[in-house]
Design brief:
alpha/beta, TIM Barrel, seven-stranded parallel β-sheet, two-stranded antiparallel sheet, 14 helices, binds coproporphyrinogen III
Protein backbone atom coordinates (compact mmCIF):
# COMPACT_ATOMS: atom_id res chain seq x y z
CA UNK A 1 0.00 0.00 0.00
CA UNK A 2 1.01 3.61 -0.08
CA UNK A 3 3.21 4.10 2.97
CA UNK A 4 4.60 7.56 2.43
CA UNK A 5 2.29 10.50 1.99
CA UNK A 6 0.70 13.57 3.38
CA UNK A 7 0.11 12.09 6.85
CA UNK A 8 3.89 12.22 7.44
CA UNK A 9 5.39 15.57 8.48
CA UNK A 10 8.72 14.85 6.76
CA UNK A 11 6.89 14.08 3.50
CA UNK A 12 4.77 17.25 3.75
CA UNK A 13 7.97 19.23 4.28
CA UNK A 14 9.49 17.93 1.02
CA UNK A 15 6.17 18.55 -0.76
CA UNK A 16 6.35 22.24 0.22
CA UNK A 17 9.30 22.54 -2.16
CA UNK A 18 8.53 19.89 -4.78
CA UNK A 19 5.46 18.72 -6.65
CA UNK A 20 4.65 15.02 -6.47
CA UNK A 21 5.89 14.61 -10.05
CA UNK A 22 9.16 16.41 -9.17
CA UNK A 23 9.67 13.96 -6.31
CA UNK A 24 9.07 11.02 -8.65
CA UNK A 25 11.29 12.45 -11.42
CA UNK A 26 14.27 13.03 -9.12
CA UNK A 27 15.70 9.64 -8.14
CA UNK A 28 17.59 11.02 -5.12
CA UNK A 29 14.37 12.49 -3.70
CA UNK A 30 12.27 9.45 -4.57
CA UNK A 31 14.80 7.24 -2.79
CA UNK A 32 14.75 9.55 0.22
CA UNK A 33 10.93 9.40 0.45
CA UNK A 34 11.05 5.61 0.04
CA UNK A 35 13.11 5.44 3.23
CA UNK A 36 10.94 7.81 5.28
CA UNK A 37 8.32 5.26 6.41
CA UNK A 38 10.97 2.64 7.17
CA UNK A 39 12.72 5.00 9.56
CA UNK A 40 9.56 6.50 11.00
CA UNK A 41 7.27 3.48 11.28
CA UNK A 42 9.54 0.47 11.70
CA UNK A 43 7.85 -1.47 8.90
CA UNK A 44 9.46 -4.66 7.53
CA UNK A 45 9.57 -3.66 3.86
CA UNK A 46 9.83 -0.48 1.82
CA UNK A 47 7.65 0.39 -1.15
CA UNK A 48 9.29 2.43 -3.85
CA UNK A 49 8.15 6.03 -4.05
CA UNK A 50 6.65 6.43 -7.54
CA UNK A 51 3.11 6.39 -8.93
CA UNK A 52 1.17 3.91 -11.05
CA UNK A 53 0.35 6.72 -13.50
CA UNK A 54 3.95 7.71 -14.39
CA UNK A 55 3.93 5.61 -17.62
CA UNK A 56 1.20 7.97 -18.92
CA UNK A 57 3.84 10.66 -19.51
CA UNK A 58 5.92 8.75 -22.08
CA UNK A 59 2.66 7.36 -23.50
CA UNK A 60 1.74 10.96 -24.37
CA UNK A 61 -1.46 10.94 -22.29
CA UNK A 62 -0.41 13.98 -20.28
CA UNK A 63 -0.33 13.62 -16.49
CA UNK A 64 -0.70 16.19 -13.75
CA UNK A 65 -1.79 16.18 -10.10
CA UNK A 66 -3.94 19.11 -9.00
CA UNK A 67 -3.86 19.84 -5.27
CA UNK A 68 -6.75 18.05 -3.60
CA UNK A 69 -8.23 16.83 -6.88
CA UNK A 70 -6.14 13.80 -7.68
CA UNK A 71 -4.70 12.91 -11.06
CA UNK A 72 -5.63 14.63 -14.32
CA UNK A 73 -5.03 13.07 -17.75
CA UNK A 74 -4.95 15.73 -20.47
CA UNK A 75 -5.41 13.44 -23.51
CA UNK A 76 -7.70 10.61 -22.45
CA UNK A 77 -8.33 7.55 -24.59
CA UNK A 78 -11.64 7.78 -26.45
CA UNK A 79 -11.37 5.60 -29.54
CA UNK A 80 -9.36 3.00 -31.42
CA UNK A 81 -7.05 5.55 -33.04
CA UNK A 82 -6.02 6.80 -29.58
CA UNK A 83 -4.93 3.29 -28.62
CA UNK A 84 -3.17 2.65 -31.94
CA UNK A 85 -1.25 5.88 -31.45
CA UNK A 86 0.21 4.78 -28.08
CA UNK A 87 3.96 4.19 -28.38
CA UNK A 88 5.46 0.90 -27.18
CA UNK A 89 7.59 1.85 -24.18
CA UNK A 90 11.09 0.74 -23.30
CA UNK A 91 11.15 0.94 -19.47
CA UNK A 92 14.93 1.49 -19.37
CA UNK A 93 14.62 4.39 -21.77
CA UNK A 94 11.22 5.89 -20.98
CA UNK A 95 11.03 5.28 -17.22
CA UNK A 96 14.76 5.15 -16.49
CA UNK A 97 14.39 7.62 -13.63
CA UNK A 98 12.14 5.15 -11.77
CA UNK A 99 14.70 2.38 -12.24
CA UNK A 100 17.40 4.72 -10.97
CA UNK A 101 15.26 5.43 -7.88
CA UNK A 102 15.02 1.64 -7.36
CA UNK A 103 18.82 1.34 -7.50
CA UNK A 104 19.39 4.25 -5.11
CA UNK A 105 16.71 3.13 -2.64
CA UNK A 106 18.03 -0.43 -2.66
CA UNK A 107 21.55 0.81 -1.97
CA UNK A 108 20.38 3.05 0.87
CA UNK A 109 18.08 0.54 2.62
CA UNK A 110 19.30 -1.77 5.37
CA UNK A 111 20.01 -5.26 4.01
CA UNK A 112 17.13 -6.85 5.93
CA UNK A 113 14.48 -4.49 4.50
CA UNK A 114 13.26 -5.69 1.11
CA UNK A 115 12.28 -3.13 -1.52
CA UNK A 116 8.92 -3.55 -3.29
CA UNK A 117 8.53 -2.22 -6.83
CA UNK A 118 5.06 -1.78 -8.33
CA UNK A 119 2.86 -0.92 -11.27
CA UNK A 120 -0.83 -0.42 -11.97
CA UNK A 121 -2.83 -3.35 -13.33
CA UNK A 122 -4.23 -3.12 -16.88
CA UNK A 123 -7.80 -2.40 -15.73
CA UNK A 124 -6.93 0.27 -13.17
CA UNK A 125 -4.55 2.01 -15.60
CA UNK A 126 -7.09 1.85 -18.40
CA UNK A 127 -9.74 3.34 -16.12
CA UNK A 128 -7.59 6.44 -15.51
CA UNK A 129 -6.63 6.66 -19.20
CA UNK A 130 -10.27 6.53 -20.31
CA UNK A 131 -11.89 8.59 -17.53
CA UNK A 132 -9.17 11.26 -17.63
CA UNK A 133 -8.86 11.06 -13.85
CA UNK A 134 -10.51 9.45 -10.84
CA UNK A 135 -14.09 8.24 -11.08
CA UNK A 136 -16.82 6.94 -8.83
CA UNK A 137 -18.89 5.11 -11.44
CA UNK A 138 -16.36 4.27 -14.21
CA UNK A 139 -19.02 5.15 -16.76
CA UNK A 140 -16.69 5.97 -19.67
CA UNK A 141 -14.53 2.95 -18.92
CA UNK A 142 -17.47 0.55 -18.94
CA UNK A 143 -18.99 2.20 -22.00
CA UNK A 144 -15.79 1.59 -23.98
CA UNK A 145 -15.58 -1.96 -22.61
CA UNK A 146 -19.12 -2.81 -23.74
CA UNK A 147 -19.39 -0.69 -26.91
CA UNK A 148 -15.95 -1.35 -28.38
CA UNK A 149 -14.58 -4.63 -26.99
CA UNK A 150 -11.87 -4.80 -29.69
CA UNK A 151 -10.57 -1.36 -28.73
CA UNK A 152 -10.85 -2.35 -25.07
CA UNK A 153 -8.85 -5.55 -25.55
CA UNK A 154 -6.21 -3.74 -27.57
CA UNK A 155 -5.89 -1.11 -24.82
CA UNK A 156 -5.69 -3.61 -21.97
CA UNK A 157 -3.29 -5.77 -23.97
CA UNK A 158 -0.99 -2.77 -24.45
CA UNK A 159 -1.20 -1.95 -20.75
CA UNK A 160 -0.47 -5.59 -19.82
CA UNK A 161 2.69 -5.69 -21.96
CA UNK A 162 3.81 -2.33 -20.67
CA UNK A 163 3.44 -3.12 -16.95
CA UNK A 164 4.73 -6.68 -17.29
CA UNK A 165 8.01 -5.46 -18.82
CA UNK A 166 8.16 -2.45 -16.50
CA UNK A 167 7.83 -4.66 -13.40
CA UNK A 168 10.51 -7.03 -14.67
CA UNK A 169 12.80 -4.03 -15.26
CA UNK A 170 12.23 -2.91 -11.65
CA UNK A 171 13.24 -6.39 -10.47
CA UNK A 172 16.44 -6.19 -12.57
CA UNK A 173 17.17 -2.79 -11.00
CA UNK A 174 16.97 -4.29 -7.50
CA UNK A 175 13.33 -4.56 -6.41
CA UNK A 176 13.01 -7.82 -4.46
CA UNK A 177 9.23 -8.09 -4.72
CA UNK A 178 6.72 -6.59 -7.13
CA UNK A 179 3.17 -5.44 -6.51
CA UNK A 180 0.46 -5.10 -9.15
CA UNK A 181 -2.26 -2.65 -8.04
CA UNK A 182 -5.74 -3.30 -9.38
CA UNK A 183 -7.20 -0.70 -7.05
CA UNK A 184 -10.56 -0.15 -8.76
CA UNK A 185 -11.33 -3.54 -10.30
CA UNK A 186 -13.96 -4.17 -7.63
CA UNK A 187 -16.34 -1.94 -9.62
CA UNK A 188 -16.88 -4.86 -12.04
CA UNK A 189 -19.25 -7.79 -11.83
CA UNK A 190 -17.59 -11.20 -11.48
CA UNK A 191 -18.61 -12.11 -15.04
CA UNK A 192 -17.17 -8.90 -16.48
CA UNK A 193 -13.93 -9.34 -14.53
CA UNK A 194 -13.54 -12.78 -16.06
CA UNK A 195 -14.40 -11.68 -19.59
CA UNK A 196 -12.81 -8.26 -19.93
CA UNK A 197 -9.93 -8.13 -17.45
CA UNK A 198 -8.63 -11.46 -16.18
CA UNK A 199 -6.71 -12.49 -19.37
CA UNK A 200 -4.88 -9.16 -19.41
CA UNK A 201 -3.97 -9.28 -15.72
CA UNK A 202 -2.78 -12.84 -16.24
CA UNK A 203 -0.49 -11.71 -19.07
CA UNK A 204 0.95 -8.81 -17.06
CA UNK A 205 1.60 -11.09 -14.08
CA UNK A 206 3.21 -13.79 -16.23
CA UNK A 207 5.60 -11.27 -17.84
CA UNK A 208 6.51 -9.92 -14.40
CA UNK A 209 6.92 -13.42 -12.94
CA UNK A 210 9.53 -14.21 -15.59
CA UNK A 211 11.84 -11.91 -13.59
CA UNK A 212 11.80 -14.45 -10.75
CA UNK A 213 10.71 -11.86 -8.15
CA UNK A 214 7.73 -12.74 -5.95
CA UNK A 215 4.57 -10.85 -6.87
CA UNK A 216 1.77 -9.37 -4.77
CA UNK A 217 -1.49 -9.12 -6.73
CA UNK A 218 -3.63 -6.51 -4.97
CA UNK A 219 -7.19 -5.36 -5.51
CA UNK A 220 -10.01 -3.81 -3.52
CA UNK A 221 -13.60 -5.00 -3.61
CA UNK A 222 -12.50 -8.35 -5.06
CA UNK A 223 -14.40 -10.55 -2.59
CA UNK A 224 -17.21 -11.40 -5.06
CA UNK A 225 -14.68 -12.86 -7.54
CA UNK A 226 -11.65 -13.64 -5.40
CA UNK A 227 -11.02 -17.08 -6.92
CA UNK A 228 -10.87 -15.60 -10.42
CA UNK A 229 -8.76 -12.69 -9.21
CA UNK A 230 -6.28 -15.13 -7.66
CA UNK A 231 -6.30 -17.33 -10.75
CA UNK A 232 -4.84 -14.43 -12.77
CA UNK A 233 -1.62 -14.91 -10.80
CA UNK A 234 0.49 -13.60 -7.94
CA UNK A 235 2.40 -15.40 -5.21
CA UNK A 236 0.60 -13.20 -2.68
CA UNK A 237 -3.00 -11.98 -2.97
CA UNK A 238 -3.70 -8.58 -1.42
CA UNK A 239 -7.22 -8.20 -0.02
CA UNK A 240 -9.15 -5.33 1.55
CA UNK A 241 -11.20 -5.32 4.77
CA UNK A 242 -14.51 -6.16 3.12
CA UNK A 243 -13.79 -9.87 3.64
CA UNK A 244 -12.46 -11.60 6.78
CA UNK A 245 -8.88 -12.58 6.00
CA UNK A 246 -9.37 -16.23 6.97
CA UNK A 247 -12.33 -16.51 4.56
CA UNK A 248 -10.21 -14.97 1.82
CA UNK A 249 -7.31 -17.30 2.56
CA UNK A 250 -9.57 -20.33 2.45
CA UNK A 251 -10.85 -19.25 -0.95
CA UNK A 252 -7.47 -18.57 -2.59
CA UNK A 253 -5.97 -21.71 -1.06
CA UNK A 254 -3.22 -22.15 1.49
CA UNK A 255 -0.54 -22.56 -1.15
CA UNK A 256 -0.77 -18.79 -1.70
CA UNK A 257 0.38 -16.12 0.66
CA UNK A 258 -2.01 -13.33 1.63
CA UNK A 259 -1.62 -9.62 2.38
CA UNK A 260 -3.99 -7.51 4.39
CA UNK A 261 -6.35 -6.37 5.57
CA UNK A 262 -6.91 -3.66 8.19
CA UNK A 263 -9.39 -0.93 7.19
CA UNK A 264 -7.26 2.25 6.93
CA UNK A 265 -10.09 4.01 8.79
CA UNK A 266 -9.34 1.82 11.83
CA UNK A 267 -6.26 4.02 12.29
CA UNK A 268 -8.69 6.86 13.05
CA UNK A 269 -10.48 4.86 15.79
CA UNK A 270 -9.74 5.04 19.53
CA UNK A 271 -6.74 2.87 20.39
CA UNK A 272 -8.73 -0.02 22.00
CA UNK A 273 -10.96 -0.42 18.91
CA UNK A 274 -8.00 -0.11 16.53
CA UNK A 275 -5.99 -2.67 18.49
CA UNK A 276 -8.97 -5.03 18.66
CA UNK A 277 -9.19 -5.00 14.87
CA UNK A 278 -5.44 -5.59 14.51
CA UNK A 279 -5.56 -8.53 16.96
CA UNK A 280 -8.55 -9.98 15.14
CA UNK A 281 -6.64 -10.08 11.84
CA UNK A 282 -3.57 -11.60 13.47
CA UNK A 283 -5.77 -14.21 15.18
CA UNK A 284 -7.52 -15.10 11.92
CA UNK A 285 -4.15 -15.57 10.20
CA UNK A 286 -3.43 -17.96 13.09
CA UNK A 287 0.33 -17.88 12.78
CA UNK A 288 0.27 -19.64 9.43
CA UNK A 289 3.32 -18.80 7.32
CA UNK A 290 2.57 -16.50 4.43
CA UNK A 291 0.60 -13.67 6.02
CA UNK A 292 1.86 -10.14 5.28
CA UNK A 293 0.09 -7.83 7.71
CA UNK A 294 -0.93 -4.66 5.90
CA UNK A 295 -3.74 -2.19 5.53
CA UNK A 296 -6.43 -3.13 3.04
CA UNK A 297 -5.67 0.10 1.15
CA UNK A 298 -3.46 3.18 1.51
CA UNK A 299 -2.98 5.27 4.65
CA UNK A 300 -5.54 8.09 4.80
CA UNK A 301 -4.06 11.62 4.87
CA UNK A 302 -5.88 12.36 8.19
CA UNK A 303 -3.99 9.58 9.98
CA UNK A 304 -1.78 10.25 13.00
CA UNK A 305 1.71 8.81 12.50
CA UNK A 306 1.65 7.57 16.11
CA UNK A 307 -1.36 5.35 15.28
CA UNK A 308 0.54 3.71 12.39
CA UNK A 309 3.55 3.14 14.62
CA UNK A 310 1.34 1.62 17.31
CA UNK A 311 -0.08 -0.87 14.79
CA UNK A 312 3.40 -1.87 13.60
CA UNK A 313 4.47 -2.43 17.21
CA UNK A 314 1.36 -4.44 18.04
CA UNK A 315 1.82 -6.69 14.99
CA UNK A 316 5.47 -7.15 15.94
CA UNK A 317 4.30 -8.47 19.28
CA UNK A 318 4.70 -5.33 21.37
O1 LIG B 1 5.15 4.96 -0.11
C1 LIG B 1 4.38 5.25 -1.01
O2 LIG B 1 3.46 6.05 -0.84
C2 LIG B 1 4.57 4.61 -2.34
C3 LIG B 1 4.30 5.45 -3.50
C4 LIG B 1 2.94 5.37 -4.16
C5 LIG B 1 2.27 6.52 -4.64
N1 LIG B 1 1.21 6.12 -5.39
C6 LIG B 1 2.68 7.95 -4.43
C7 LIG B 1 1.58 8.94 -4.32
C8 LIG B 1 2.21 4.25 -4.56
C9 LIG B 1 2.43 2.79 -4.25
C10 LIG B 1 1.12 4.74 -5.36
C11 LIG B 1 0.17 3.87 -6.06
C12 LIG B 1 -1.05 4.46 -6.65
N2 LIG B 1 -1.22 5.67 -7.23
C13 LIG B 1 -2.25 3.74 -6.77
C14 LIG B 1 -2.46 2.29 -6.37
C15 LIG B 1 -2.57 2.12 -4.90
C16 LIG B 1 -3.83 2.68 -4.32
O3 LIG B 1 -3.71 3.54 -3.45
O4 LIG B 1 -4.91 2.28 -4.76
C17 LIG B 1 -3.18 4.60 -7.37
C18 LIG B 1 -4.64 4.29 -7.67
C19 LIG B 1 -2.52 5.82 -7.68
C20 LIG B 1 -3.06 7.02 -8.39
C21 LIG B 1 -3.00 8.23 -7.54
N3 LIG B 1 -1.84 8.89 -7.18
C22 LIG B 1 -4.07 8.96 -7.00
C23 LIG B 1 -5.53 8.58 -7.15
C24 LIG B 1 -3.53 10.06 -6.31
C25 LIG B 1 -4.26 11.19 -5.66
C26 LIG B 1 -4.98 10.77 -4.45
C27 LIG B 1 -4.62 11.59 -3.26
O5 LIG B 1 -4.49 11.01 -2.19
O6 LIG B 1 -4.49 12.81 -3.44
C28 LIG B 1 -2.13 9.96 -6.40
C29 LIG B 1 -1.16 10.90 -5.78
C30 LIG B 1 -0.13 10.25 -4.92
N4 LIG B 1 0.74 9.30 -5.34
C31 LIG B 1 0.12 10.53 -3.55
C32 LIG B 1 1.21 9.71 -3.18
C33 LIG B 1 1.91 9.64 -1.86
C34 LIG B 1 -0.66 11.56 -2.71
C35 LIG B 1 0.18 12.49 -1.92
C36 LIG B 1 0.61 13.76 -2.59
O7 LIG B 1 -0.19 14.46 -3.23
O8 LIG B 1 1.78 14.08 -2.41
Amino acid sequence: MRQAGRYMPEYRKLREQHSILDLCHTPELAAQVTLQPVTRLGVDAAILFADILLPFEPLGLGLSFAAGEGPHIANPIERLADVERLPVLDPEEDLGYVLEAVRLARAALPGDIPLIGFAGAPFTLASYAVEGGSSRTFTRTKTLMYQAPDTWNLLLGRMADLVGHYLAAQARAGAQALQLFDSWVGCLSPADYRTYVLPHSRRALALAAASGAPIIHFGTGTAPFLEDFASAGGDVIGVDWRIPIDDAWGRIGESRAIQGNLDPAALLAPAPERDRQVRDIVARAAGRPGHIFNLGHGVLPETDVAAVRAVVELVHGG
